[in-house]
Design brief:
By secondary structure, the chain is α/β, with parallel strands linked by helices. It is 37% helix and 19% strand.
Length: 319
Protein backbone atom coordinates (compact mmCIF):
# COMPACT_ATOMS: atom_id res chain seq x y z
CA UNK A 1 0.00 0.00 0.00
CA UNK A 2 1.33 3.43 -0.93
CA UNK A 3 2.20 5.73 2.00
CA UNK A 4 -0.36 8.29 0.81
CA UNK A 5 -3.13 5.66 0.72
CA UNK A 6 -2.15 4.36 4.16
CA UNK A 7 -2.28 7.87 5.62
CA UNK A 8 -5.67 8.55 4.00
CA UNK A 9 -7.11 5.32 5.47
CA UNK A 10 -5.76 6.20 8.91
CA UNK A 11 -7.22 9.70 8.70
CA UNK A 12 -10.69 8.43 7.75
CA UNK A 13 -10.53 5.75 10.46
CA UNK A 14 -9.65 8.43 13.00
CA UNK A 15 -12.54 10.63 11.89
CA UNK A 16 -14.94 7.68 12.25
CA UNK A 17 -13.36 6.73 15.60
CA UNK A 18 -12.80 3.26 14.21
CA UNK A 19 -10.88 0.89 16.49
CA UNK A 20 -9.73 -2.41 14.95
CA UNK A 21 -10.18 -5.66 16.86
CA UNK A 22 -6.72 -6.26 18.32
CA UNK A 23 -7.37 -9.94 19.06
CA UNK A 24 -8.56 -10.60 15.50
CA UNK A 25 -5.53 -8.78 14.13
CA UNK A 26 -3.22 -10.90 16.26
CA UNK A 27 -4.90 -14.13 15.21
CA UNK A 28 -4.75 -13.28 11.51
CA UNK A 29 -1.11 -12.17 11.59
CA UNK A 30 0.04 -14.70 14.20
CA UNK A 31 1.61 -11.83 16.09
CA UNK A 32 0.94 -10.36 19.54
CA UNK A 33 2.08 -6.85 18.51
CA UNK A 34 4.12 -6.68 21.71
CA UNK A 35 7.87 -6.65 22.27
CA UNK A 36 9.78 -7.16 25.49
CA UNK A 37 12.47 -4.86 26.88
CA UNK A 38 14.78 -6.59 29.36
CA UNK A 39 16.70 -3.98 31.37
CA UNK A 40 20.03 -4.94 32.91
CA UNK A 41 20.92 -1.59 34.52
CA UNK A 42 19.98 -1.42 38.23
CA UNK A 43 18.95 2.25 38.30
CA UNK A 44 17.27 2.48 34.90
CA UNK A 45 19.47 5.44 33.90
CA UNK A 46 20.17 3.77 30.54
CA UNK A 47 17.12 1.58 29.96
CA UNK A 48 14.47 4.22 30.70
CA UNK A 49 15.64 6.71 28.03
CA UNK A 50 16.12 3.77 25.66
CA UNK A 51 12.55 2.64 26.43
CA UNK A 52 11.19 6.11 25.59
CA UNK A 53 12.84 5.91 22.18
CA UNK A 54 11.52 2.38 21.68
CA UNK A 55 7.96 3.41 22.57
CA UNK A 56 8.05 6.35 20.16
CA UNK A 57 9.44 4.21 17.32
CA UNK A 58 6.86 1.43 17.75
CA UNK A 59 3.75 3.53 18.39
CA UNK A 60 2.81 3.99 14.73
CA UNK A 61 2.94 0.21 14.20
CA UNK A 62 0.54 -0.42 17.07
CA UNK A 63 3.20 -2.30 19.05
CA UNK A 64 3.26 -2.24 22.86
CA UNK A 65 6.38 -2.62 24.99
CA UNK A 66 6.74 -4.76 28.13
CA UNK A 67 9.50 -3.30 30.34
CA UNK A 68 11.12 -5.71 32.81
CA UNK A 69 13.96 -4.74 35.18
CA UNK A 70 16.35 -7.67 35.47
CA UNK A 71 19.29 -5.77 37.04
CA UNK A 72 22.29 -8.11 37.43
CA UNK A 73 20.33 -11.08 38.80
CA UNK A 74 20.30 -14.10 36.42
CA UNK A 75 17.37 -15.69 38.28
CA UNK A 76 15.23 -12.57 37.93
CA UNK A 77 16.23 -12.21 34.28
CA UNK A 78 15.18 -15.80 33.50
CA UNK A 79 11.80 -15.30 35.20
CA UNK A 80 11.17 -12.16 33.16
CA UNK A 81 12.11 -13.92 29.92
CA UNK A 82 9.76 -16.79 30.76
CA UNK A 83 6.95 -14.31 31.45
CA UNK A 84 7.56 -12.56 28.13
CA UNK A 85 7.53 -15.86 26.27
CA UNK A 86 4.25 -16.74 28.00
CA UNK A 87 2.84 -13.47 26.65
CA UNK A 88 4.08 -14.43 23.15
CA UNK A 89 6.08 -11.26 22.58
CA UNK A 90 7.17 -10.88 18.96
CA UNK A 91 10.75 -9.92 19.80
CA UNK A 92 13.08 -8.88 22.59
CA UNK A 93 15.30 -5.85 23.24
CA UNK A 94 18.08 -6.45 25.75
CA UNK A 95 19.52 -3.32 27.36
CA UNK A 96 22.81 -3.52 29.26
CA UNK A 97 25.35 -1.05 30.62
CA UNK A 98 28.41 -1.44 28.38
CA UNK A 99 29.18 -2.68 24.89
CA UNK A 100 31.69 -5.28 26.07
CA UNK A 101 29.68 -6.47 29.10
CA UNK A 102 27.69 -9.71 28.56
CA UNK A 103 24.11 -9.92 29.79
CA UNK A 104 23.62 -12.05 32.94
CA UNK A 105 21.94 -14.87 30.98
CA UNK A 106 22.47 -16.43 27.56
CA UNK A 107 19.61 -15.57 25.18
CA UNK A 108 21.10 -17.02 21.99
CA UNK A 109 18.77 -20.06 21.99
CA UNK A 110 15.55 -18.01 21.97
CA UNK A 111 13.35 -18.70 18.95
CA UNK A 112 12.46 -15.04 18.39
CA UNK A 113 14.29 -11.94 17.17
CA UNK A 114 16.63 -10.35 19.74
CA UNK A 115 18.43 -7.01 19.52
CA UNK A 116 21.01 -5.89 22.10
CA UNK A 117 21.57 -2.30 23.24
CA UNK A 118 24.81 -1.56 25.13
CA UNK A 119 25.26 -5.27 25.75
CA UNK A 120 27.86 -7.58 24.23
CA UNK A 121 25.43 -9.98 22.56
CA UNK A 122 26.44 -13.21 20.79
CA UNK A 123 29.03 -13.18 17.96
CA UNK A 124 26.27 -13.34 15.34
CA UNK A 125 23.99 -10.92 17.18
CA UNK A 126 22.75 -7.41 16.44
CA UNK A 127 24.06 -4.78 18.86
CA UNK A 128 23.44 -1.02 19.07
CA UNK A 129 25.64 1.37 21.05
CA UNK A 130 26.66 5.04 21.11
CA UNK A 131 29.96 5.78 19.37
CA UNK A 132 31.82 7.16 22.38
CA UNK A 133 35.16 7.05 20.60
CA UNK A 134 33.80 9.38 17.94
CA UNK A 135 32.43 11.68 20.66
CA UNK A 136 35.87 11.95 22.25
CA UNK A 137 37.53 12.56 18.88
CA UNK A 138 35.14 15.37 17.97
CA UNK A 139 35.29 16.98 21.40
CA UNK A 140 39.09 16.81 21.64
CA UNK A 141 39.43 18.16 18.10
CA UNK A 142 37.28 21.16 19.08
CA UNK A 143 39.42 21.62 22.20
CA UNK A 144 42.66 21.46 20.20
CA UNK A 145 41.26 24.01 17.78
CA UNK A 146 40.69 26.26 20.81
CA UNK A 147 44.30 25.73 21.90
CA UNK A 148 43.77 23.05 24.56
CA UNK A 149 46.66 20.58 24.56
CA UNK A 150 46.71 19.04 28.06
CA UNK A 151 43.45 17.14 28.67
CA UNK A 152 42.81 14.92 31.68
CA UNK A 153 39.97 12.42 32.04
CA UNK A 154 38.08 11.71 35.29
CA UNK A 155 36.64 8.32 34.47
CA UNK A 156 34.70 6.93 37.42
CA UNK A 157 35.19 3.50 39.04
CA UNK A 158 37.82 1.21 37.48
CA UNK A 159 35.69 -1.88 38.22
CA UNK A 160 33.00 -0.61 35.84
CA UNK A 161 33.29 -2.04 32.31
CA UNK A 162 31.61 1.07 30.92
CA UNK A 163 34.12 3.37 32.67
CA UNK A 164 37.08 1.34 31.44
CA UNK A 165 35.73 1.38 27.89
CA UNK A 166 35.35 5.16 27.95
CA UNK A 167 38.85 5.53 29.36
CA UNK A 168 40.24 3.50 26.44
CA UNK A 169 38.21 5.58 23.98
CA UNK A 170 39.59 8.78 25.56
CA UNK A 171 43.19 7.60 25.29
CA UNK A 172 42.66 6.42 21.71
CA UNK A 173 41.60 9.99 20.86
CA UNK A 174 43.90 11.98 23.18
CA UNK A 175 47.02 9.80 23.11
CA UNK A 176 47.90 6.66 25.03
CA UNK A 177 49.92 8.65 27.59
CA UNK A 178 47.01 11.03 28.33
CA UNK A 179 46.20 10.95 32.08
CA UNK A 180 43.12 8.99 33.19
CA UNK A 181 42.00 9.03 36.82
CA UNK A 182 39.59 6.47 38.27
CA UNK A 183 37.32 7.02 41.27
CA UNK A 184 33.66 7.37 42.18
CA UNK A 185 30.79 8.71 40.09
CA UNK A 186 30.12 11.51 42.54
CA UNK A 187 30.42 15.26 42.90
CA UNK A 188 32.62 14.78 45.97
CA UNK A 189 35.21 12.69 44.13
CA UNK A 190 35.30 15.08 41.18
CA UNK A 191 35.87 17.97 43.54
CA UNK A 192 38.59 16.20 45.54
CA UNK A 193 40.43 14.95 42.45
CA UNK A 194 40.57 18.35 40.76
CA UNK A 195 41.65 19.95 44.03
CA UNK A 196 44.45 17.37 44.32
CA UNK A 197 45.53 18.03 40.72
CA UNK A 198 45.73 21.77 41.23
CA UNK A 199 47.84 21.31 44.35
CA UNK A 200 50.25 18.66 43.08
CA UNK A 201 50.65 18.79 39.30
CA UNK A 202 53.39 20.95 37.80
CA UNK A 203 51.83 21.31 34.34
CA UNK A 204 48.14 21.89 35.00
CA UNK A 205 45.51 20.51 32.61
CA UNK A 206 43.80 22.97 30.32
CA UNK A 207 40.84 20.64 29.72
CA UNK A 208 39.00 18.36 32.13
CA UNK A 209 36.81 15.65 30.61
CA UNK A 210 34.47 13.68 32.87
CA UNK A 211 32.69 10.36 32.62
CA UNK A 212 29.47 11.60 34.23
CA UNK A 213 27.72 14.86 35.11
CA UNK A 214 28.16 14.57 38.93
CA UNK A 215 31.94 14.33 38.44
CA UNK A 216 31.84 17.46 36.25
CA UNK A 217 29.82 19.34 38.88
CA UNK A 218 32.47 18.54 41.48
CA UNK A 219 35.25 19.56 39.09
CA UNK A 220 33.56 22.91 38.48
CA UNK A 221 33.30 23.58 42.21
CA UNK A 222 36.98 22.82 42.76
CA UNK A 223 38.08 24.95 39.80
CA UNK A 224 36.03 27.86 41.15
CA UNK A 225 37.73 27.51 44.53
CA UNK A 226 41.13 27.76 42.81
CA UNK A 227 40.07 30.87 40.92
CA UNK A 228 40.07 29.06 37.56
CA UNK A 229 37.65 30.41 34.96
CA UNK A 230 35.59 27.96 32.90
CA UNK A 231 35.87 27.88 29.93
CA UNK A 232 38.28 30.83 29.62
CA UNK A 233 41.15 29.16 31.53
CA UNK A 234 40.12 25.51 31.52
CA UNK A 235 37.55 23.74 29.37
CA UNK A 236 35.24 21.14 30.95
CA UNK A 237 33.31 18.43 29.10
CA UNK A 238 31.24 15.51 30.35
CA UNK A 239 29.24 12.51 29.23
CA UNK A 240 25.58 12.75 30.23
CA UNK A 241 22.10 13.64 29.06
CA UNK A 242 19.70 16.48 29.74
CA UNK A 243 20.95 19.99 30.42
CA UNK A 244 24.68 20.15 31.20
CA UNK A 245 26.14 22.33 33.99
CA UNK A 246 26.89 25.92 32.95
CA UNK A 247 29.94 26.42 30.69
CA UNK A 248 30.36 22.66 30.13
CA UNK A 249 30.41 20.77 26.82
CA UNK A 250 28.03 17.82 26.89
CA UNK A 251 28.75 14.52 25.14
CA UNK A 252 25.23 13.09 25.03
CA UNK A 253 24.92 9.39 24.04
CA UNK A 254 21.38 10.17 22.81
CA UNK A 255 19.86 7.03 24.35
CA UNK A 256 16.36 7.76 23.03
CA UNK A 257 17.64 7.80 19.44
CA UNK A 258 19.57 4.62 20.21
CA UNK A 259 16.40 2.93 21.47
CA UNK A 260 14.43 4.08 18.42
CA UNK A 261 17.06 2.70 16.03
CA UNK A 262 17.20 -0.63 17.86
CA UNK A 263 13.39 -0.86 17.85
CA UNK A 264 13.22 -0.21 14.10
CA UNK A 265 15.75 -2.99 13.51
CA UNK A 266 13.72 -5.36 15.71
CA UNK A 267 10.51 -4.52 13.84
CA UNK A 268 12.25 -5.25 10.55
CA UNK A 269 13.37 -8.63 11.89
CA UNK A 270 9.86 -9.39 13.15
CA UNK A 271 8.57 -8.51 9.69
CA UNK A 272 11.10 -10.99 8.27
CA UNK A 273 13.28 -8.31 6.69
CA UNK A 274 16.92 -9.34 6.86
CA UNK A 275 19.06 -7.29 9.24
CA UNK A 276 22.73 -8.08 8.94
CA UNK A 277 24.40 -9.08 12.25
CA UNK A 278 26.97 -6.69 13.62
CA UNK A 279 27.60 -3.72 15.87
CA UNK A 280 25.84 -0.51 14.91
CA UNK A 281 27.43 2.59 16.43
CA UNK A 282 25.31 5.73 16.50
CA UNK A 283 26.84 9.20 16.94
CA UNK A 284 26.60 11.01 20.23
CA UNK A 285 25.35 14.59 20.31
CA UNK A 286 27.99 17.18 21.16
CA UNK A 287 26.38 20.13 22.92
CA UNK A 288 28.74 23.13 23.28
CA UNK A 289 28.54 25.34 26.38
CA UNK A 290 25.36 27.39 26.45
CA UNK A 291 23.66 25.52 23.59
CA UNK A 292 20.32 23.74 23.93
CA UNK A 293 20.39 19.96 23.67
CA UNK A 294 18.09 19.90 20.68
CA UNK A 295 20.54 21.96 18.62
CA UNK A 296 23.45 19.58 19.12
CA UNK A 297 25.37 18.38 16.15
CA UNK A 298 24.95 14.84 14.95
CA UNK A 299 26.68 12.73 12.35
CA UNK A 300 26.42 9.64 10.24
CA UNK A 301 25.93 6.24 11.83
CA UNK A 302 29.31 4.58 12.28
CA UNK A 303 29.04 0.85 11.66
CA UNK A 304 32.01 -1.33 12.63
CA UNK A 305 30.90 -4.68 11.20
CA UNK A 306 27.71 -4.13 9.21
CA UNK A 307 25.56 -1.51 7.57
CA UNK A 308 22.88 0.17 9.62
CA UNK A 309 19.23 -0.93 9.41
CA UNK A 310 17.33 1.69 7.49
CA UNK A 311 14.82 4.13 8.87
CA UNK A 312 11.31 2.74 8.40
CA UNK A 313 10.41 5.94 6.55
CA UNK A 314 12.53 4.75 3.65
CA UNK A 315 14.13 1.64 2.24
CA UNK A 316 16.32 -0.30 4.68
CA UNK A 317 20.02 -0.12 3.86
CA UNK A 318 20.87 -3.71 4.69
CA UNK A 319 23.83 -5.39 3.04
Amino acid sequence: MAPETRERVRRIASELEFRPNVMARALLSRRSFTIGLLAGDPDGSISMPVARGVAEATLADGVSVFYCAASHDPTVARKHVEAMLDKHVDGLLVVGEALEAPFPIDLSALALPVVHVLSAGPPDGIVFAPDEGEAFRRTLQDLRTAGRQRPVYLAGPSESVACRQRALAFRAAAGWDAPVLFGAVSELWGRMEVDRLWQSVEHLPDAVLCGATPIAQGALAALAEHGVRVPADVAVATFGDGDPPPHVTLMDPDLEALGAAAARALLEMIGETEVRPGRYLLPCRIVPPGAACNTASGGAVQDVTARSPGDRRGAPSVA
